[in-house]
Amino acid sequence: MTLNELLDTVPAYAKDLKLNLSTLVQQQELNEQQIWGTLVASAVASRNPQLIQSVLAEAVSHLSPQALEAAKGAAAVMGMNNIYYRFQHLTKNEKYATLPARLRMNVMRTHGIDPVDFELWCTAVSAINGCGACIDSHEQVLRNKGMTEEAILAAVRLASVVHGLATVFDTEAVAATQPVSA
After folding, report:
1. Residue 146: what are its φ and ψ, rounded to 5°?
2. Is 134 one of the catalytic residues?
3. Catalytic pick from 25, 30, 131, 158?
4. Residues 137-155: pLDDT tens digits?
């Protein structure tokens, strides 16, 4: 199913999400690779199979194979890192922060695309996963590399809409299996 066909299934209660996505994929704050990489990373992080399938199918016409893999890699590594660093951030035991992570994160330096784009996708995924430590870290790197707050927020805005759509599609899938009661 194409992304537009999937969006046509959005129920009336979530019409704002559909309209927002249509607008956000045309925003000027981000380039095409940044938009579509954010879409891919956010869809993967949001875990809805329909949305992932539709976004991936369309992303191949907007991203190079290397950028597509990097966006999926950003979602994967941040899926791990967001749990690990959120734990460190939330625990009151400061010793955890002094211990080595012992987690492989090679994709963060071997992705082969513009490092700013990869950092942007890591930030979007971290926002979805709610890891304040990772959000702060990646957002700081982006600003140090010259990205504006407006561009960063544009990616986070896109991630928020993708996550909202995933929630709607998950809800509708569950609702379709439940009997209607009066």
Report:
1. 95, 5
2. yes
3. 131
4. 999 999 999 999 999 999 9
